[in-house]
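Predict the 3D structure for this chain.
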Amino acid sequence: MLADALELEFGRDGERTREPGGTALGEAIRTILLDPTLPAMDSNAELLLLFAARAEHLARVIKPALARGQWVVCDRFTDASYAYQGGGRALDSANIAALETLIQQEFRPDLTIVLDLDPTVALHRAVRRGVPDRFEQEELAFFTRVRKSYLQRAAADPKRMVVVDAAPDVETVHAAVMQAVRERLT
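Done. Predicted structure below.
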């Protein structure tokens, strides 16, 4: 919805993508990361796979789209690594920051929108969508830590990160997202 609205309102084409994913290699890594039938993996291995996918994604999709003057709307990026692997898996944020610098150098998103929702409600919504993936099978405490990490990051960087209440209906959430975009990117 965001990408469509950006194209309609601002008249600029956009790249729609996701992480992990966005490239053939990234999608293969996504399959490994989300597959609930695979055995549990080491948290550092998970983090490294995410950044491997991100490196390819930046090189093949994101930076070329930006060079063409396009918007890039990405479902998750490095803030998700800080939240899921740093908050959820309790990995040292200094290690995540080191990988962020190695892979991204100074590149950072202009805007990160955090769709905030009580973890219990979020898990219920995930179950309604279908078979839970490897992350969605985590305990509630994991998602509570993830949420806390996202909210702490947003509080520390309010010019770049906006928290939007994701509890209301889709149209209300979309309106709040568009308001945040208009305020920060126009």
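Residues 2-185 form a domain with the Rossmann fold fold (CATH 3.40.50.300).
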